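Side project, low priority. Logging it here so it doesn't get lost.
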Amino acid sequence: MTLEHLLKAIDPIEIVGPVNRQVTNLVSDSRKAAQGSVFVAVRGVNVDGHSFVESLAHRSLAAIVVETMPLQLDPTVTYVVVKNSAVALGCLASQWYDNPSRKLKLVGVTGTNGKTTTATLIYEMARLSGAKAGLLSTVCNYIETRAVPTNQTTPDPLTINRLLAEMVEEGCTYAAMEVSSHAADQHRIAGLTFAGGIFTNLTRDHLDYHKTFEAYLQAKKSFFDNLPAEAFAITNIDDKVGEVMLQNTAAARYTYSLRRPADFACRIIESRIDGTLLSLNGHEVNVMFTGRFNAYNLTAVYGTSLLLGWTVEEVLLNMSRLVPVSGRFQAFHSATGVTAVVDYAHTPDAVVNVISAIREIIGRDHKLITVVGAGGNRDKGKRPIMAREAASLSDMVVLTSDNPRFEKPEDILADMEAGLDTAELREVTTTIVDRRQAIDHAIRSAQPGDVVLIAGKGHEDYQEIEGVKHHFDDREVATEVLASL
């Protein structure tokens, strides 16, 4: 590709040097910059790419994209000045991979909770309809049936477009992706063309990064602000900011709700530990999902599926065939009648939602035991809140280590215990630092008919301690202990 063709994707402020040269690679990592590369200097959270610009002299790069022109220019390099290099990177990445998002019906899902489930189920609905589809999610990326491991909810722009291009090459016509607040704030989705966007809900999370709830809200809202007029935007109007999300969008607006009239309205008819009978716009369907929070996710999937063009009959049939996402309200049973539920709930609201779903099913006839912790080097303010919510809604709580990262687990647990009063600490709560021992204790404390909720890690198969990921899977541990009862 020529530099001139690549630069058609952006509106440069200034160009110094020729544009009629061949480009061999597009990078934002200076270590990968080589002969013929275009290097985009992005101001990141920890590193500013501009600090590497002058060190790239004499590498025979095709061009360097910057926000501010360096003092020393390499006469063999073309310099391109832009207003925002992060936005430019997204647009250039789309151009470099021949704008793959324009060749797909790409649906983005944003919100605090429910992104993974909703995005994954849209991907599954497309495949159940007979189409080929792709998925970008927290658990795993998929190009049709090929799994591509991930370590980010939303990858960087180059990775996103490379994966989308591979989806197009594979024959995919649909794609679903999670859009995190970090990704929106850092413009990782710049340059993408979305067919639709979904808002799930907004509760406290990631304030270690965003600092304020308002900044967190605006990051989510920016996704909808940038949707094109040809797209659709569907929002949960039962959430306090659901309508705010769509205030400035050019996309066609739709709503979904479990409480009031909406374009897509849902009512829970019957709840079980292994599924729910729903009424969606008056049509009944049995689904293999449990909990009010999952009813919201499924209503969003129902509405989105219709907006993507599938018939009501086809949508209802395929919804009845959907299975829960790994580590999201995943139930395991013992021969003695004890049930363990593994869920990714790692925010106060998510913990409340999952506990409430279980309590609605088992009532007060059986005990609900919750195992919960909090991640290290993340929002400390939610720790006491999570502990307080778990203790107030459960018959027994076991506080334990999650992913301590570079913090001491004991310090994290002390922060959680600070949210509990003396009675809760003495009568309801047990603190066991070792997560395996905590799960074992909780399950062995249960009687037939009781449910043990193991919250926080869900699909994760590791525990991160001092920067090292050690194999640990809540699902494996729960299965082992249940089998030994």
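Brief comment: The mean pLDDT is 94.
Revisit when time allows.
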